[in-house]
Design brief:
Blueprint: H1 2-18, H2 22-26, H3 33-38, E1 47-51, H4 57-65, E2 70-75, H5 78-90, E3 97-101, H6 109-113, E4 118-124, H7 133-142, E5 144-155, H8 163-174, H9 184-195, E6 199-204, E7 209-215
Parallel strand pairs: 1-2, 1-4, 2-3, 4-5
Antiparallel strand pairs: 5-7, 6-7
Length: 216
């Protein structure tokens, strides 16, 4: 519990003020989120879990795009969860989206949501903020249904963009404890091979973002 409290305090310190204008600014550079949501293909009455749900922006969009889905999300930051709860209520979706506090690297959805597994699990620009991001992928796979999929979008390595752009972007992201994961593809490929899970990996917008889907 001390680990969770420490992580929550760190995230609250970063986002206590930013959460009030987070969605207004992030829409300009968190690219690929709506593409991920459109590709979820949630089965009838399927369950969706967002790891690191932040302000609730994605969960609201998922609930609207896939109205038959049962949506769940958790975050380590209490401040973000307060904003998410208010945003979801304003959208009239409090009855369709359930929230909880939790650590992405070690969570149990049964006490959180009374669910043991999910058909779709979403990481939207969160792996670059989770120190134990490899553990977070494993924890998600542990609660993925037998026909489920993990959908990921995050910062790429800007591989087909100018070097100066990468330097400026990564320097700015570091101010918010965001670290694009250069080893993401290799880690996912190794994980997929070990667990017999097909992997789809796509570089978006000249490498600005990377998108991945791990399937059972």
């Amino acid at each position: 519990m001390a680990h969770v409290a420490s992580g929550a305090a760190q995230m609250d310190a970063i986002y206590r003020t930013q959460r009030h204008f987070y969605d207004l600014t992030r829409k300009y550079y968190l690219l690929g989120r709506d593409r991920l949501i459109g590709d979820l293909a949630v089965p009838p009455h399927g369950t969706v879990l967002e790891v690191g749900c932040g302000t609730g922006r994605n969960l609201i969009a998922i609930a609207r795009a896939w109205p038959h889905a049962q949506c769940h999300g958790f975050d380590i930051s209490n401040a973000m969860l307060e904003t998410a709860t208010a945003s979801i209520a304003r959208a009239g979706l409090s009855g369709k989206i359930r929230l909880a506090q939790g650590d992405a690297t070690r969570f149990d959805p049964r006490p959180m949501f009374r669910k043991a597994a999910f058909e779709r699990i979403v990481f939207s620009y969160t792996l670059s903020m989770i120190p134990g991001w490899r553990d977070a992928i494993g924890a998600a796979a542990d609660v993925l249904s037998e026909t489920g999929a993990i959908h990921i979008v995050d910062f790429g390595q800007q591989e087909r963009l100018p070097i100066w752009w990468r330097s400026i972007l990564f320097g700015w992201l570091a101010r918010f404890d965001v670290t694009p994961r250069a080893g993401l593809r290799a880690v996912l490929e190794a994980f997929a091979a070990e667990h017999g899970m097909p992997l789809e990996f796509t570089s978006l917008y000249r490498g600005y973002a990377w998108s991945a889907v791990l399937r059972r």
